[in-house]
Write a structure and sequence with these properties.
2 domains, mainly alpha, Arc Repressor Mutant, subunit A
Length: 238
């Protein structure tokens, strides 16, 4: 088992399967940044994969910034994916309107797209949980805490999709999304506006009203553009 398995048309490659298996293992074991992965040999034995397949899978994870190699330790969990995404959006130079629209466009595709599944499958207990998360925004004592509560609300909606890939993709953008959410949250009235926008979204979900949900979520995601200056550099408006 020293080579990479050939890929049949329409089939997932051995490398892609192993990447998914390693990601699942990381999640199931609760591994965090700095924790070591099993050795290449152990990964091969655990997942019945060849040496080259294991090495290519680790290269994929390194490319995504999820894993890095350290001397005398081997492969460890890295937080580099967040930094790579931050560089991609160039937040160290401020948030431009174009960057904002790109990010919110991604979020709109995800968060409006999961609406139909939520409406068809979610229980009242799921909506109660959204209400509880939303209430924390009014109790936040800082901009950072309010942004975290805001993110947790939207993450909870995405999690109701039940799709692990969608949830993982959304979570990889957490640092960037929270940065956007910090804009305009310096004043309490904005906390209240965010709370009410979320409450309207929950009411639409409880009513199983897909059209209202899509409209309210889209409007909510566009709200923050008013806090992004149209001038070059895109610093938040004062």
């Amino acid at each position: 088992m020293s080579g990479v398995e050939p890929v049949e048309p329409g089939k997932t490659s051995a490398v892609d399967r192993l990447v998914e298996q390693i990601r699942d293992m990381i999640s199931e074991r609760g591994l965090g940044i700095g924790d070591a992965l099993p050795t290449e040999r152990d990964l091969g034995e655990q997942f019945q994969a060849g040496r080259n397949t294991v090495r290519e899978a680790l290269q994929v994870l390194r490319a995504y910034g999820m894993v890095e190699t350290r001397p005398k330790v081997g492969a460890v969990i890295s937080g580099g994916h967040g930094e790579a995404i931050r560089r991609l959006f160039a937040f160290h130079n401020g948030i431009s309107p174009d960057s904002f629209r790109d990010l919110q466009g991604f979020r709109r595709i995800i968060e409006t797209g999961v609406g139909e599944h939520i409406i068809l499958t979610a229980a009242d207990a799921d909506f109660d949980r959204l209400d509880a998360i939303n209430a924390r925004i009014l109790e936040a004592d800082s901009v950072e805490e309010a942004a975290q509560c805001d993110y947790q609300f939207h993450q909870a909606i995405v999690e109701l999709s039940g799709n692990r890939t969608t949830v993982a993709a959304y979570h990889m953008l957490r640092s960037v999304i929270e940065e956007v959410m910090r804009l305009g949250k310096a004043e309490r009235p904005v906390h209240a506006a965010t709370f009410e926008a979320h409450a309207e979204i929950i009411r639409a979900l409880r009513a199983r009203d897909r059209i209202a949900y899509v409209y309210l979520m889209s409007r909510h995601l566009e709200f923050g553009i008013r806090f992004v200056d149209a001038a070059p550099g895109g610093q938040p408006s004062r």
